[in-house]
Specification:
202 residues; four-stranded antiparallel beta sheet; five-stranded antiparallel beta sheet; mainly beta
Amino acid sequence: FSGSVDKTVRQWDVSSPEPRERGPVLKQTPIDVHALALTPDGRLLAVASRELFLLDLSGSTPVDRGVVHGAHNPRALIFTPDGKTLITGGSDGVVRLWTVADGKAMARTPLKGHTQVVHGVALGPGGKTLASASADRSLRLWDLESKPPRERSPLRDSSGELLRVAFTPDGTTLAGAGADGKVRLWSLAGDHFREKSPLRGH
């Protein structure tokens, strides 16, 4: 699947030596497509544009489930490993959790702390820890096992706007891509993390 500034979501067959588009355009959005996320079982696709949209892929023909209201111009998306929760990062600086069932999403307690758009969200191994990266130059960790989820670590300022974030497979290191072309690394230990020397080259 791909989403583009041409305001379309498309599906591709990459199983052959020459990849080709599979079927017609899946979705036409009102503005650029910011992000896509697919459930682990491949049955539901979330689309971030000016609004949040859900596409049901469980049948022979994709079904557009329409707009999920209240996502506030989402810029980042990820599903938990069980596919039951969708996490979005909004342009209002709020990280939102949505319970997903039967092709619909219901809002849960929002995670507040960032002061500008959330560009990236990532889950650690097992989906227990969430990391969010923002234009406010901060990276935050959230404990999703707590009810409600709580922030695990205090605000850590970076020297630049953060655009994306990712965990290593073992969950001990976090990487953040900055608007300044640097990749920053943090070593995680319990509720705290220590910044390492950044990767320069871009």
